[in-house]
Amino acid sequence: MTSRNRSHLNKKELRVFSQLTSPLKIQDYLDSIIYSDEERYRCPRSVLKDRKAHCYDGAIFAAAALQTIGHIPLIVELLPNENDDDHILAIFKRGQYWGAVAKSNFTGLRYREPVYKSLRELVMSYFESYFNIKGERTLLGYTAPLDLNRFEKFNWLTEDNAMDIIGDALEDTRKYRIITSDMARKLTHVDKRSYKAGLLGSKQSGLFKP
Questions:
Q1: Please, are residues 15 and 25 in contact by the beta-carbon 8 Å criterion?
Q2: 209 is a domain residue
Q3: Looking at the 3D structure of the chain, how many domains does it have?
Q4: Is 94 domain-assigned?
Q5: Do 66 and 26 contact (CB within 8 A), yes or no?
Q6: What is this structure's pTM?
Q7: What percent of the chain has pLDDT over 90?
Q8: Is there a domain that residue 208 lies in?
Q9: According to the model, what pLDDT value does residue 3 have?
Q10: Does the structure show a pLDDT above 60 at 126?
Q11: How far, in Å, CA of 119 to CA of 128, rounded?
């Protein structure tokens, strides 16, 4: 976290960030707060205040916390077909290997250990767990990483309005396909056991309705 960003936080907020000393502790914090089914975007300050976030809010919060412990604040968007919602990750590196922190309504779309050699390899680790309420596998691609340092002048740590600006930039970020159109047409549905496990503890009102 830059000194400029830190200057906008109060002592209570700084104290919370100071306790999030590893990617796993950041994930644990996200898992401890309510999954938001609202369309509203929350900046990290609002996440702390309301103890509520969906995947976008959670990724921005995680990126801020990761920056506090020395990582570049990077987010990546996972891109599904039209029958599902997108998903946002805060990504980080340990040595040469990628990991991720994420807030999700699905069991399998959250934390990843930093063991993946490439960003594509990391994204592919989410493929089997990425399905909609009809059991359709939906993940098609992902964006290039977006560095939140670009948005420091918008005070993204403490201003909700900055979330729309970051979202617009994410829309314009380069996109990569992970499967072909032919592969997508031939995908099978997820099995019943995996479906049940993936939705364990999910908030029904927050699930995308195809």
A1: no
A2: no
A3: 1
A4: yes
A5: yes
A6: 0.95
A7: 95
A8: no
A9: 47
A10: yes
A11: 16
Is the distance from CB of 179 to CB of 138 less than 8 angstroms?
no
Query: What is the predicted pLDDT for the residue at 7?
Result: 62
Which residues, in sequence order, are bridge partners of residue 116?
98
Opening angle at CA 116, ends 170 and 67, nearest 5: 50
| pLDDT given for residue 4 in this prediction | 56
d(CA 129, CA 124): 10
| Residue 90 CB partners (closer than 8 Å, separation 6+) | 26, 58, 59, 60, 61, 62, 63, 66, 73, 74, 75, 100, 101, 102
Output the pLDDT for position 181. Answer: 96
pLDDT tops 90 at residue 10: no
C-alpha torsion angle, residues 206, 52, 44, 72 (rounded to 10): -60
Phi and psi at 4, nearest 5°, equal: -65, -45
Q: Which residue range forms the structural domain that includes residue 12? A: 3-203
Residues contacting residue 73 through CB under 8 Å, at least 6 positions apart: 63, 64, 66, 67, 90, 147, 148, 149
